[in-house]
């Protein structure tokens, strides 16, 4: 009889704990539209960008994490899993080109790697970038950018 009473008490406590956890967690849950895949091309003063990054930073009332895509051979892409939620974003772009120099590789001691230098106007690479993007749930997913040289 004692074991049955303890089992019933444990079940009651577990049920109350589950109810309390649900009440605590539910207010934080909100339904969000799915992330949007974003892709496109990047040029610098009309020339295809070799390498760089495109950051989508949420601004105004946009909630959610920023998105970052690497520019490879003039193209960037964020798939839907790493994409951005509908909202307004500041777009920060850094374009780089390879110099003729080799420099020591920071990851592999004794090896060298190509040196890259920024070629785009640095105003477009940070929080003063004038570029903005408005994403809606039915927006196009392809956006092309041309940034000026330094």
Instruction: Please work out how many helical segments DSSP would assign.
Output: 1
Distance between the termini: 83 Å
Percent strand equals 35-45%
CATH architecture of the largest domain: Sandwich
CATH topology of the largest domain: Immunoglobulin-like
Residue runs with pLDDT of under 50 for 5 or more positions: none
Structural category: alpha+beta
Q: Spell out the helices and strands N to C.
A: HEEEEEEEEE
What's the gyration radius in Å?
Answer: 24 Å
Q: Assembly state here?
A: single chain
Number of domains: 2
Q: How many strand units?
A: 9
The top level CATH class name of the largest domain: Mainly Beta
Give the % helix: 10-25%
> What's the rounded overall pLDDT mean?
85
Give the overall silhouette: globular
Major sheet: 5 strands, antiparallel
Summed up:
The chain has 150 residues and is of the alpha+beta class.
């Amino acid at each position: 009889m004692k074991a049955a009473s303890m089992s019933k008490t444990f079940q009651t406590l577990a049920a109350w704990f589950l109810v309390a956890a649900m009440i605590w967690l539910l207010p934080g849950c909100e339904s969000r539209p799915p992330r949007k895949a974003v892709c496109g091309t990047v040029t610098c003063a009309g020339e295809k960008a070799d390498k760089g990054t495109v950051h989508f930073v949420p601004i105004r009332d946009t909630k959610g994490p920023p998105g970052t895509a690497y520019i490879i051979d003039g193209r960037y892409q964020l798939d839907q899993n790493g994409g951005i939620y509908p909202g307004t974003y500041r777009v920060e772009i850094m374009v780089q080109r390879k110099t003729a120099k080799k420099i020591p590789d920071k990851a592999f001691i004794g090896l060298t790697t190509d040196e890259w230098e920024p070629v785009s106007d640095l105003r477009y690479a940070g929080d003063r970038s004038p570029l903005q993007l408005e994403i809606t749930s039915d927006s196009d997913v392809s956006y092309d950018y041309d940034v000026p040289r330094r």
